[in-house]
């Protein structure tokens, strides 16, 4: 089972002809609201990939719709609490080429208590996976508790913060980050990805695919991305991570799990939206780019 300590956001989408420059005002061509947050996206992706995934998080009194949506997608929502803080949200600007810029308001995502975390992991075992990102509080505390329980600890290093990553590095079994984040981490630590104290490091490279470093063996393997025409890259990395963890939770070897995750991420960029359009396992298996 996957326990995901993660954000839950209302994603507010604005379609623009191009991303705004400093001082520029643009009229949006369309607007929509959807379920999002890196944590929620990953939980939905893991659940839609066939894994049992329990989401650890919080929403405000205005967030009941988000919890209901997660439940509809197969996520175990019993560990989500209601906070006095407002539900987090993300302002997402998407240009005509599918690139995006995002502004986050954390809200309830950073209102979890250590008691909430302790209760959430009270039934977890060494057979389970713990996943977190950098959109909530208690990442280090969660990784410490999970590691003490013998769980496999995975971290998606986004939004990137060098100190947050550095704090959890000694506790990680799996680190997922993109090419820019890998460069930022190397600049902060002075260590290349293949020398980090983490058994498995997976670097997503967008249209170029991804790279897997296994630091136990010193092996590095590159994976080509399926060729698609992107319309919206929002949530593609989260979809990749959720599918990757689901594959590992189901006992797949890393290379096979990465291959499945690559297909899911590629299919995701052909769709507009985030959690609400993450493909299910049947779609991914049938996908032939």
From TrEMBL:
Per its UniProt record, the required cofactor names are: Mg(2+)
The record's cofactor note says: Requires a divalent cation, most likely magnesium in vivo, as an electrophilic catalyst to aid phosphoryl group transfer. It is the chelate of the metal and the nucleotide that is the actual substrate.
Q: Where is the active site?
A: 238 (proton acceptor)
- Give one Pfam family: PfkB
Compartments annotated for it: namely: Cytoplasm
What is the predominant subcellular site recorded for this chain? cytoplasm
Subunit and partners: Homodimer.
Please state what the protein is called: Ribokinase
Species annotation:
Sagittula salina
The coding gene here is rbsK
């Amino acid at each position: 089972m996957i326990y995901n300590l993660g954000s839950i956001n209302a994603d507010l989408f604005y379609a623009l002809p191009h991303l705004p420059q400093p001082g520029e005002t643009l009229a949006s061509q369309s607007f929509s609201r959807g379920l999002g947050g890196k944590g929620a996206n990953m939980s939905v992706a893991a659940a839609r990939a066939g894994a049992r995934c329990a989401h650890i998080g919080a929403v405000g009194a205005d967030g009941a719709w988000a919890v209901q949506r997660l439940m509809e997608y197969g996520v175990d929502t019993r560990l989500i609490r209601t906070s006095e803080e407002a539900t987090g949200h993300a302002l997402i600007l998407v240009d005509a080429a599918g690139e995006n810029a995002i502004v986050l308001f954390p809200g309830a995502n950073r209102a979890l208590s250590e008691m909430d975390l302790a209760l959430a992991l009270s039934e977890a075992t060494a057979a389970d996976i713990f996943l977190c990102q950098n959109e909530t509080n208690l990442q280090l505390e969660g990784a410490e508790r999970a590691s003490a329980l013998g769980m496999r600890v995975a971290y998606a290093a986004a939004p990137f913060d060098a100190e947050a990553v550095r704090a959890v590095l000694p506790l990680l079994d799996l680190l997922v980050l993109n090419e820019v984040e890998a460069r930022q981490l190397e600049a902060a630590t002075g260590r290349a990805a293949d020398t980090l104290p983490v058994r498995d490091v997976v670097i997503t490279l967008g249209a170029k695919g991804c790279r897997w470093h296994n630091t136990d063996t010193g092996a590095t393997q590159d994976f080509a991305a399926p060729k698609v025409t992107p319309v919206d890259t929002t949530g593609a990395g989260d979809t990749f991570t959720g599918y990757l963890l689901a594959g590992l939770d189901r006992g797949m070897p890393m290379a096979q799990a990465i291959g499945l995750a690559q297909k899911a991420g590629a299919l995701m960029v052909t769709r507009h939206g985030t959690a609400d359009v993450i493909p299910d396992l049947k779609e991914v298996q049938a996908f032939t780019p």
